[in-house]
Design a protein that fits this description.
Number of strands: 8
Strand content: 25-35%
Distance between the termini: 30 Å
Shape: elongated
CATH class of the largest domain: Alpha Beta
Number of domains: 2
Structural class: alpha/beta
CATH architecture of the largest domain: 2-Layer Sandwich
Radius of gyration: 26 Å
Oligomer: single chain
CATH superfamily of the largest domain: Lipoprotein like domain
Strand order of the largest sheet: 4-3-5-6-7
């Protein structure tokens, strides 16, 4: 089952200079999730199907997870209509399809005193939920009737077997699993992008070293001075582009990449420009 990776507070771009390996700079980029929510940051739980207890626990579990994650906000409004949604809002339909607890036997692999593995069956109490989720903006659907399953078990022969297990606690644990998967599918994630520098020109080794050390002004000045004497130096154009790219100045970076590609269409230059264009798309789509 997929699990939610909790995001740190959002930021435009965190610069990290690599300390070893091929010369490169890294940039933390906020990327869309599997289901692209565009600019949605506010979820509204509308009318949903299911037992009252199931719906109540589902909403409470989702509220807890969203509060921890801190990307979306959440409210409940069963009367809201889709055509009344505002900018950055999406209507969430959270239908509880299955919601039950039953006793079961679970296979466990253990080791005996000689270190040999053997299989045993342990009685457990198992809660299982199945959610059918739809998420809609005013003009478009983000997802329609996607199923998410959550399962939680309680070991009836374990050290805590004498504890009183409330159904709602097991249900809540199962709901957390399903809803974490849902949030993982819609929450934009911060990913580290590595932007390679070009150190193939021996005359630019010092400038590349300064770029890696985050001395951007100094490195850029060295690259520009080198271009003044060697206007066809594609490496200098490209590396200035990398410095701009690593500062989230993507449009300026692509102009430099274009200059480098005109002079020398290296696959490195072409691929890096393509990655930069993708970063522009990610940024613009989440504004």
């Amino acid at each position: 089952m997929k699990r939610l990776i909790t995001l740190a507070p959002l930021f435009a771009g965190l610069l990290i200079a690599t300390a070893c390996g091929p010369p490169s700079l890294s940039l933390a980029v906020l990327e869309p999730a599997e289901f692209h929510v565009l600019d949605t940051t506010h979820l509204i739980i509308g009318e949903s199907l299911g037992r009252p207890l199931a719906k109540e626990l589902s909403a409470a579990a989702l509220e807890d997870l969203i509060r921890e994650d801190n990307y979306f906000s959440l409210v409940q409004n069963a009367r809201i209509q889709r055509d009344a949604l505002l900018e950055h809002e999406a209507l969430l339909r959270l239908d509880v399809v299955e919601f039950f607890i039953h006793e079961d036997l679970e296979n466990r692999i253990l080791e005996d005193e000689r270190g040999l593995e053997f299989t045993t069956q342990t009685p457990v109490l198992r809660a299982q939920v199945l959610l059918e989720i739809s998420l809609m903006q005013k003009q478009a659907s983000i997802m329609e009737k996607v199923l998410y399953e959550g399962i939680a078990t309680f070991d009836l022969d374990g050290p805590d077997s004498s504890a009183i297990v409330r159904d709602s606690e097991l249900y809540r644990a199962a709901l957390y699993g399903a809803l974490e998967s849902f949030l993982n599918d819609i929450t934009p994630r911060i990913q580290e992008h590595s932007i390679p520098l070009d150190d193939s020109d021996e005359n630019l080794k010092e400038a590349v070293s300064n770029a890696r050390a985050r001395s951007f002004s100094k490195a850029s000045k060295q690259f520009e001075e080198y271009l003044g004497q060697n206007p066809s130096a594609s490496e200098a154009h490209y590396n200035i582009g990398v410095i701009l790219d690593a500062q989230s100045r993507f449009e300026e970076a692509m102009l430099r990449y274009d200059e480098a590609i005109k002079l020398n269409p290296k696959p490195l230059y072409i691929n890096t420009r393509s990655s930069c264009a993708e970063r522009v798309y990610f940024r613009d789509s989440l504004l």
